[in-house]
């Protein structure tokens, strides 16, 4: 197995991935699950090896055990741990991923207009990655309110464990290919073209979106409460089944009465919560919380 680098200089151009023993792999599995809840299965060992050895080579570290000690070395290790997480976090996503979920969101928000808008809608993207999902939530809310002739009375919070992903989300800059699947009028309404060929979210939309670091294992410490909408898609698949239910139970408690929880289809089976009612749409996995809006 080899690893290619863009750096053309000598040995950096093509180097073997460091071999990892079963004991070493197990140690890294345990560390990642303990700290993030993410489970690295045996079939993803090559993924872990490639990313670890790439970072180790940059640091001049030759042994997995030495690097393990480095990332677990108290406060000093915390900085390197953050860097490593960015390497191991899957950040590929797109705007309006799983269109049916956003159709459900749009209908839900339209139904909310039947009630007085006494406070801003609070929407939360859990595992927001580089920002496509929170901005998609913002666009949906903005359009519903704009179509009703109402001001932008909403706020979107995006949370993620990756500082690198959060930096991209806050910047709000996206390559042209990211906007290809957007309807033309949406792209023109909410994005401006950049000199480098990319696009940037317009300030009026970006000002409604806030992104913050959050480990989903620490949801109990999160300040979010009384949320009108929570999206948690393409995140739970990385956790054990019992942990998925634990996360969902915590998210359910953060919903306001009448609030909407949207989960990735197929990410959890058989989960129920006494305060939630399934949304009657076979295309999605979504629930509303019992109680009046």
UniProtKB/TrEMBL annotation:
GO terms for molecular function: protein-glutamate O-methyltransferase activity. The keyword Cytoplasm does not apply. Pfam families: CheR (PF01739), CheR_N (PF03705). Residues 13-293 form the CheR-type methyltransferase domain. It comes from the Bacteria. InterPro entries: Bact_Chemotaxis_MeTrfase, CheR_C, CheR_MeTrfase, CheR_N, CheR_N_sf, SAM-dependent_MTases_sf. GO terms for biological process: methylation. Its EC number is 2.1.1.80. It catalyses: L-glutamyl-[protein] + S-adenosyl-L-methionine = [protein]-L-glutamate 5-O-methyl ester + S-adenosyl-L-homocysteine. Keywords: Methyltransferase, S-adenosyl-L-methionine, Transferase. This is protein-glutamate O-methyltransferase. It comes from Pseudomonas segetis.
């Amino acid at each position: 197995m080899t690893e290619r680098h863009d750096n053309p200089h000598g040995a950096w151009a093509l180097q073997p991935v460091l071999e990892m023993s079963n004991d070493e792999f197990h140690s890294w599995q345990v560390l990642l699950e303990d700290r993030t809840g993410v489970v690295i299965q045996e079939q993803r060992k090559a993924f872990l090896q490639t990313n670890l050895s790439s970072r180790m080579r940059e640091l001049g570290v030759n042994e997995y055990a030495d690097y393990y000690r480095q990332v677990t070395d108290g406060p000093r290790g915390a900085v390197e741990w953050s860097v490593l997480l960015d390497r191991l976090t899957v950040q590929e996503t797109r705007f309006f991923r799983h269109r049916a979920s956003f159709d459900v969101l749009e209908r839900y928000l339209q139904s909310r207009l039947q009630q007085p808008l006494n406070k801003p809608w609070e929407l939360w993207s859990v595992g927001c990655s580089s920002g496509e999902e929170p901005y998609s939530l913002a666009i949906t809310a903005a359009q519903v309110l704009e179509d009703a002739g109402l001001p932008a009375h909403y706020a979107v919070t995006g949370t993620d464990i990756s500082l690198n992903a959060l930096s991209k989300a806050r910047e709000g800059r996206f390559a042209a290919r990211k906007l290809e699947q957007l309807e033309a009028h949406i792209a023109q309404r909410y994005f401006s073209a950049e000199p480098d060929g990319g696009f940037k979210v317009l300030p009026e939309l970006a000002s409604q979106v806030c992104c913050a670091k959050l480990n989903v294992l620490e949801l109990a410490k999160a300040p979010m409460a009384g949320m009108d909408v929570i999206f948690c898609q393409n995140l739970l698949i990385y956790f054990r089944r019992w942990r998925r239910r634990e996360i969902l139970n915590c998210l359910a408690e953060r919903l306001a009465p009448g609030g909407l929880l949207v989960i990735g289809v197929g990410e959890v089976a058989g989960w129920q919560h006494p305060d939630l009612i399934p949304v009657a749409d076979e295309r999605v996995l979504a629930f509303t919380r019992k109680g009046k809006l």
